[in-house]
Amino acid sequence: MTKHLDLPLTKPSVKPAQFVMTEKAKAAIERLARQSMNQGANRALKDDKIQRAARAAIAEAILPWLTFMQEHDPEAVLTFFIQIATMTNEAGRNKIMKHDLFPIEAKRIIEAHVEKMKAYAEAQRAEAAASRSAEAAKRDAKQNANEESEEKAEALD
Predict the structure, then answer these.
(1) Segment 109-126, tens digit of pLDDT
(2) Full DSSP string of the chain
(3) Angle (nearest 5°) at CA 34 between 40 and 23
(4) Is the pTM of this model over 0.90?
């Protein structure tokens, strides 16, 4: 029974196990990461090639379609040019308006719509500026009120 009397009174501290990655495991992880990146890059290149081919096919089909539609439904050609011209910037719009099949009457409609778009954008900017000004005025008023209450408190002391 006396054998057990010299046991320590506290439990020995155990350090948590630390993970140590071997060189072989590091190499395997790096290899997998490289393979994954390569696969992603290859898929992206393949998708890009498919999309370029699709855009080229659409561009190739537009001119015959416009020619056909000009004979059978000139209103569709007018609508087409109006829609694409209003969706681009001014430089693109000027190029579109120089197209051989561009209907002359579309120019007036496009210019009117662009003016409406500009007026709307300006109204949005003015509204945002007014909102910012109102917020700044509220903030200034609140700050002035705080300063006045601090001055009154100092005067009472």
Answers:
(1) 999 999 999 999 999 999
(2) -GGGGG--SSPPP-PPP-----HHHHHHHHHHHHHHHHHHHHHHHHHHHHHHHHHHHHHHHHHHHHHHHHHH-HHHHHHHHHHHHHTS-HHHHHHHHTSTT--HHHHHHHHHHHHHHHHHHHHHHHHHHHHHHHHHHHHHHHHHHHHHHHHHHHHH-
(3) 155
(4) no
